[in-house]
Design a protein that fits this description.
The chain has 414 residues and is an alpha/beta fold. The protein is built from 14 helices and twelve strands. The strands form three sheets. The chain has a seven-stranded mixed beta sheet, sandwiched between helices. Strand 3, helix 6 and strand 4 form a beta-alpha-beta unit. The radius of gyration is 22 Å and the shape is globular. It starts with a helix and ends in a 6-residue tail after the last helix.
Length: 414
Amino acid sequence: MRYSKNAEALTPSAIRDMMVRSAAYNDTISFAVGEPDFISAPNVLEAACRAAKAGATKYAPGAGEAKLREVYAGYLSDAIGVPYSPEEIQVTTGGCGALFLAMSCILDPGDEVIISSPYWTNYNQQIRQLYAVPVMVDVYEENDFIMTAEDIEKAVTDKTKLILVNSPSNPTGGVIDRHALEQIAKIAVKHDLFVMSDEVYRHILFDGARYASIASIPGMKERTMIIDSVSKTHAMTGFRVGFGAGPVHWIRLMTKLTENVVSSVCTISQYAAIEAIEHGADYMNMMCGEYEKRRNYIYDRINAMEPLSCIRPKGAFYLFVNIRKTGMSSEEFCNKLLDEEHVAVVPGSNFGSGGEGFVRISYATSMERIEEGLNRMETFLKRTLSRTPNETWAADAQADLEDFIEGQGIYIRQ
C-alpha cells in the first residue's frame, strides 16, 4: 500500500514536538505553546452550559448559526470600520479551519502564495497540502519583521494568486501599520491578487499601537478574506470557533467545503462565542493588560542576559529572541535548554529559514512561571557559555549516550 506523497512530505510541527518532549519532565516550564493560560470567562462557560441544557446539541447550519454570523458581522464592522453582513461571514473550526477553507477555495495546484518568513508554521504546511507553492519574503529584525511592498513586488510572478499577511504576527509580535498595508494593497490591485489577512491577535496590542486591517483600504474588501477566531482574544482555544469574513461568493464556496468535511462547527461552542463577542470586552481587556505586564518583564530580562537580545514586540504574546551570539543553532539551543534546565522554547527554524538564529518564547503563562523559566535560562546560559570546547564535547557526548540508552530501553542500575 502507498500513502500520499504530499502528506508524507509534510513536516511535523516543532511546537507540538516540544510539547511532547516537555511531558517527559514533571517540572517543565513551557514557553512553547501559543495558548492563553487564562480559563475562558465565567459568563462564556455559563453560556455554553445554558446552550447545552436548552438543547443546542444538534447540527448547526454549515455557514454557522445565524445569530453568531449576525453578531460577528456587527462586531467586525465596528472593529475595522467597514460594513459586513452575515452573508459575508463563515463560522469555522478555529482560525486554522478558516485559513484552510479560504485557501482551498482559490488555490489550484502550482499557484503561488506570498508569505513572510518567519511565518506561522501552518501557513507553509497548508499551502503545500493544497499542492500550491509558498513563496517566502524574508523579513528582518531591524525592520521589526515587517514585509515591505518592494520585497513583495519582487516576489510576484505570473503564478502568484495570493498574498498572506499576519498582523499582529505570530511568531514575531510585529504589527503592520496602515501606510505599509496601503502599499501592499496597491500591489494586490495592480496584479489582481487575492489577499488573506490573519487578524486573530487583533486586540492584543501594546504601547498604544493602533490596529489597521487591509480590508478597510478602499478597493480591498472585495478581494480580501479576514481570518479571525475567539481562541486568543477570549481564551477559548478548546471551543474551536473561528471566522472567515470576505466576498459572498468566496464565503459560499467555504460553506460547501465545510458541509463536505465537518458538516458544521460545534453548536454549543457557537453560543459560547456569541456571549464572548457580545459581553467579553472587559475580560479580554484584563488579559491584554496582563500580557503587556509580562511582555515588559520578559523583554527586560532577556535583554539583560548576555548574549541574548530581542526587539520589543507591539502585539500578540510572543518574543522572538536573537540567539546568534551563542554560536548555537536554534534547534541546538532549544534541545539543550530543555534537556538541561527543563525549559521549553521553540526553534526559529520551525518558522522558516528567516527564523534561524532566533527562538520563540510565548509569554501566555503566569508571571510566576515566567520568572522561574527565565531564572533557569540564565543559569543555562552562564553554564553553557563558560564551558571549554572539551567540556562542551563531553556534555554533548553524554547527552547522545543518554538518548541512545533511552531509545534502546536499556536500564542501568545505579
